């Protein structure tokens, strides 16, 4: 009997000794797993708006416990607007065996989607993923893709245009032919303008080399220039704004960075916030094993008023009381 009690006591002591060892082993395995996390990011082109999104992605990942240099490896590629580079870079990112891929802007996301149907993909700054053929529907994406829409509040932007520029009758809509998301927004802009008694004309730039000549011609025919979310135009915004300002034509763009580069005002989505949400969704897939196909496309319900007071002054535009109240 004494011998049996001794054996039980020895077993208990042994378990007490082994428990912290087992716990430490499990913790090390978990730590090893977290240290192995890799996120591949493909950005379409460099300009302030997309650069802000990328920084927001890193912030969103960090908020969820994934920090570059500690327990996360981020592999970043920038196609600089070259579709052939995007395709090649997609393959390079896949070779890194990432846990998640992130595509910033529609062309980059499309390149990733064409490259893999297995690795989870999170979309950053894609206006209408369903229309772009990236998901089955924005509510139920299906497959290996989900993400965040940068769909601008076009109707609110045209309400702002009417308040700020009441003399406007003719609106020129400038887009590039390279981006599906810009075409979708141009259609929404045309509908919004028509509802408000405005006439529109769409101007399409086949390439960045032709933007300046197109803008030089269009400013002779319009009262106000409207620019949807278009990465090619955004990358050339300074030149566009210079031509329009010389012709005394105000610009209502869709994002804050384009206001800063010469637009007069907009109601737009904060690009850093957009990136943060993208990073959070990527972290949910990595850390919580969420299925991207079951995660609806995230759409922001509100936008921020952004005003370039210096540009308003240079064009002699008086801010009405309604807009002043929105600015407070």
TrEMBL record:
Swiss-Prot/TrEMBL keywords: Membrane, Transmembrane, Transmembrane helix
A Pfam family of this chain: ABC_sub_bind
Transmembrane domains' residue ranges: 6-26
Transmembrane helix among keywords: yes
Highest taxon listed in the record's lineage: Bacteria
Name of protein: ABC transporter substrate-binding protein
InterPro entries recorded: ABC_SBP_TrpX-like (IPR047776), ABC_transpt-TYRBP-like (IPR007487), Peripla_BP_I (IPR028082)
Keyword Membrane set for record: yes
């Amino acid at each position: 009997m004494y011998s049996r009690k001794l054996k039980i006591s020895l077993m208990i002591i042994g378990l007490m000794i082994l428990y912290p060892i087992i716990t430490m082993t499990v913790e090390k395995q978990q730590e090893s797993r977290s240290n192995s996390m890799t996120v591949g990011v493909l950005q379409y082109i460099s300009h302030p708006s997309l650069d802000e999104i990328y920084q927001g992605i890193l912030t969103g990942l960090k908020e969820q416990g994934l920090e570059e240099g500690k327990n996360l490896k981020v592999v970043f590629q920038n196609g600089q607007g070259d579709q052939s580079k995007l395709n090649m870079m997609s393959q390079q990112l896949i070779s890194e065996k990432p846990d998640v891929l992130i595509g910033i802007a529609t062309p980059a996301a499309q390149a990733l989607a064409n490259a893999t149907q297995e690795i989870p993909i999170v979309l950053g700054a894609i206006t209408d993923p369903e229309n772009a053929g990236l998901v089955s529907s924005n509510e139920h994406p299906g497959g290996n893709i989900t993400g965040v829409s940068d769909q601008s509040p076009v109707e609110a932007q045209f309400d702002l245009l009417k308040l700020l520029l009441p003399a406007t009758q003719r609106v020129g809509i400038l887009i590039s032919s390279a981006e599906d998301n810009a075409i979708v927004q141009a259609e929404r802009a045309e509908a919004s303008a028509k509802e408000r008694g405005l006439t529109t004309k769409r101007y399409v730039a086949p390439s960045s080399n032709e933007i300046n000549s197109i803008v030089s011609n269009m400013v002779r025919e319009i009262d106000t220039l409207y620019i949807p979310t278009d990465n090619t135009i955004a990358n050339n915004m300074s030149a566009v704004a210079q031509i329009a300002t010389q012709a005394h034509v105000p610009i209502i763009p869709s994002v804050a960075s384009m206001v800063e580069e010469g637009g007069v005002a907009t109601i737009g989505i904060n690009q850093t916030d957009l990136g943060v949400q993208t990073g959070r969704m990527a972290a949910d897939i990595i850390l919580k094993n969420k299925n991207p196909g079951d995660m609806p496309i995230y759409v922001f319900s509100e936008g921020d008023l952004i005003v370039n007071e210096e540009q308003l002054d240079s064009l002699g535009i008086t801010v009405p009381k309604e807009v002043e109240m929105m600015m407070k």
